[in-house]
Amino acid sequence: MRKPALTIDGLGVSFGGFKAVDxxxxxxxxxxxxxxxxxxxxxxxxxxxxxSGKTAATEGKVYLYGQExxxxxxxxxxxxxxxxxxxxxxxxxxxxxxxxxxVAAARETSVFRNLRLGxxxxxxxxxxxxxxxxxxxxxxxxxxxxxxxxxxxxxxxxMLIVQDARVxxxxxxxxxxxxxxxxKTSRIINELKGKHTLIxxxxxxxxxxxxAERITVMHMGKLLAEGSIAQIxxxxxxxxxxxxxxxxx
Length: 249
Ligand SMILES: Nc1ncnc2c1ncn2[C@@H]1O[C@H](COP(=O)(O)OP(=O)(O)O)[C@@H](O)[C@H]1O
Ligand SMILES: [Mg+2]
Prior knowledge:
Layout: E1 4-15, E2 18-29, E3 33-37, H1 44-52, E4 59-64, E5 67-68, H2 74-80, E6 82-85, H3 97-105, H4 111-117, H5 121-134, H6 149-162, E7 167-171, H7 179-192, E8 197-201, H8 205-211, E9 214-219, E10 222-227, H9 229-233, H10 236-241
Parallel strand pairs: 3-8, 3-9, 6-7, 7-8
Antiparallel strand pairs: 1-2, 1-4, 4-5, 9-10
The chain binds adenosine-5'-diphosphate and magnesium ion.
């Protein structure tokens, strides 16, 4: 049996009495890809903010491989192994693609040690794997700021993998992507299955169908349903929650 990677236990936050996330509980196993669905305002982004320490929880706990990380400073949670991809990628726009990956690999040591002494073999190997995975081999010498929208997103995801993030949070990773870029993103994510633990918030159901294993549906800050895509689509409470928003689409 797989062990829990991320355990979320009764997690919640209240903004002036309004509970954006309300007693949310789920367990994401090691190597699992979990998709999180929910209507606008359901609390999906806030839930990621609570996990990553951007927002402090007012109730509940979060454990990463059994170690409690609730309400630790954001940088400590990142160092413990939660990697988050942002809408505006946190890449170094003036550095080349390869340099971005090298800086990410050097994260735990000193960038200056790496500039002077070079990367360790395992770090170089990991960079090569990520270059294959993200298909960025043709643009390694390109300034990151000159990449296409999709390539920037793949570079940032690649940087999280080079850093060996234990749990990767992706909030609407295909937003603003073309259909071709979205398809490529689903291929990348499918290749990560089993090797990395991922939580992906996404609206694009065509994309969700490409990648989904287990799905969690949030509604009004709470867990509404959990199961396979077929179970979720047949769930009466899920249909009800999406009423007026045109259903899950
Ligand atoms: N810092 C905040 N202060 C007050 N309300 C907030 C804050 N952050 C989010 N919310 C509210 O919490 C709810 C959930 O938001 P969000 O997590 O962004 O939803 P989702 O990502 O599922 O669309 C929304 O009603 C939003 O307006
Ligand atoms: Mg959101």
